[in-house]
Specification:
It is found in: Cytoplasm, Cytoskeleton, Cilium axoneme. By secondary structure, the chain is of the alpha/beta class. The protein has four helices and nine strands; from the N terminus they run E-H-E-E-E-E-E-H-E-H-E-E-H.
């Protein structure tokens, strides 16, 4: 397995056919690809991502991306980091539903948690500082069998609630989680959520 970080120049080379630097790993062979804080920011994803067949971790945080594309060529993708973009909707993740374990979408403009139900191996979901206004959205996550680590701080659902009450509401809807907003769930919290 190749664990290298691919540069923006290498992905540019892959996309536009420009020879890569000698010390740069091939984008197609890299397991980790980080293209965050690009200048100018990446505004749109295109099909060239699907040539990254060995990519296990893709970081496109802090750009201007507003929508996802199908990731049909990324059959090994385990971690997808898209925080600090302009994403409005979680969608088009069907092609990575069997492999995706971590999805980082904090600091976007997401209001619903649709599009996650097929992610059977998802263990981590970070959606802090978005526009989630209804607790009913969290009910959609109860069907994810491996989800253990969630981050919801900074969403409207937490307004006017104490930290304890917010955590209790999360536990009532997603009882299997082990970590909420960076803190491990205590047995006393779990008991309170179950009404014991």
């Amino acid at each position: 397995m190749v664990w290298s970080v691919i540069s923006a120049d290498a992905v540019f080379a892959l996309t536009f056919g420009v020879p890569e630097a000698k010390n740069s790993a091939s984008a197609e062979e890299s397991a980790v690809i980080k293209l965050y804080c690009q200048m100018p920011p990446i505004a749109k994803l295109d099909n060239s991502l699907n040539t990254l067949k060995n990519c296990e971790q893709l970081s496109l945080s802090t750009n201007g991306i507003d929508r996802l594309i199908p990731l049909s060529g990324m059959k090994k993708l385990r971690i997808l980091s898209l925080g600090r973009n302009q994403i409005k909707k979680i969608e088009k993740l069907d092609d990575v539903s069997d492999t995706l374990e971590e999805l980082w979408l904090s600091y976007n403009v997401i209001a619903t948690l649709d599009g996650l139900s097929g992610l059977t191996n998802l263990t981590t979901l970070y959606v802090s500082n978005n526009l989630i206004k209804s607790w009913d959205e969290l009910d959609k996550l109860a069907s994810l069998p491996k989800l253990r680590d969630v981050l919801f701080t900074g969403n409207p659902i937490y307004e006017n609630l104490s930290k304890e009450d917010a955590r209790l509401n999360v536990l009532k809807r997603i009882p299997k989680v082990a970590k909420i907003d960076g803190d491990m769930v205590k047995q006393t919290e779990r008991d309170a959520a179950l009404g014991q």
